[in-house]
Amino acid sequence: MPAHPAAAVSVATLPAWSWRLVPALLVCLAAPAFFVLRVPWVGWVLLAAGLAVAVAMERADAAPRPAADASADDDAAARGIRTPSIVRDLSLIAIGLLIVSSIPLAAELDNLSIVRFAVALGAAVAVPYVISRWLYRDHAIRFPWRGGGRWTAFQWSWLAAVLVLGWLILPFYFITSGVYLNWPVVDTPDLIARLFVGVGAVGIWDELFFICTCFALLRRHFPFWQANVLQMVVFVSFLWELGYQAWGPLLTIPFALLMGWIFMRTRSLAYVVTVHLLFDAVVFLVLVHAHNPGVLDGFFLV
Asked: Is the distance from CB of 128 to CB of 213 less than 8 angstroms?
């Protein structure tokens, strides 16, 4: 799916630095407040402050400007291009964060927990999408499944590399750090099946929310590396409460940055989801291995 014309124009003309980073950073820092510190009121204050600063900046931008600037805006409007709004876009991220923070993110496999996760995480993607498309009418959130065409040889090779790297790194991380205990014991076929579905579903959701929603919205206002760092803050904070603790950020920070880079290069939701699911397949096997010594001892090195 091609990018929206407005997005293409805005990205091409983005300044290297902008004071809009201030409200964006405040909004994104609400994520560690919610998911790492677990102090909700701090997250609420950061979201409110970020949106308030964004409103003030947008009002200042709307003040009368020199004729040359006004002419450029008029030309864009004549071509049907709507300037992205930092207030609207940050509000969508804030709404998603508020919805996700409304539930505990500790991994549980009982029926109630599964339903709670499905409803909250689903709403965190669906509600911003609906607001963007039908209330704000800018269709800023899109899910470009097929992206830029057929996968290259390098992309196929990277899929194999993901499996190898996961096989080498993840068992050492989960078992030596003890973080596998952040996930429930899975020692029956039913629990193992639930874990498999849950790990995969959350992995897909990660790309829908952190990449196609947060990163895509931030990319409308900031150069790639700035938008990517901002989405990484949100992504890694969520993964921390989910269970990737101890020295987990040493893995999750580069992983989050890499997923943003891959999406930027491929424009393919299908590809980033495939990469993530392959990685999560190894996570699933490691968790089964860690909770059931002897089952996969011959497969992993740890």
From this structure: yes
Which of the four pLDDT bands, split at 50, 70 and 90, describes residue 67?
low
For residue 198, CA distances in Å to 37, 174, 228, 258, 283 come to 24, 18, 26, 23, 11
* 3-class DSSP assignment, residue 19: coil
Query: CA 174, CA 119: separation in Å to the nearest integer?
Result: 28
Q: How far apart are CA 6 and CA 260, in angstroms?
A: 20
The whole-angstrom separation of Cα 103 and Cα 120 is: 7
Give the span between the Cα atoms of 294 and 239, in whole angstroms. Answer: 28
Q: How far apart are the first and last CA of the chain?
A: 43
* Nearest-angstrom CA–CA distance, 250 and 236: 10
> Which candidate, 176, 156, 102, 167, places its Cα nearest to that of 275?
156
In order of 17, 59, 249, 253, 265, the CA distances from 236 in angstroms are: 24, 32, 7, 6, 21
Q: Please report the pLDDT score of residue 102 as a whole number.
A: 97
Q: With contact defined as beta carbons under 8 Å apart, do 28 and 172 qualify?
A: no
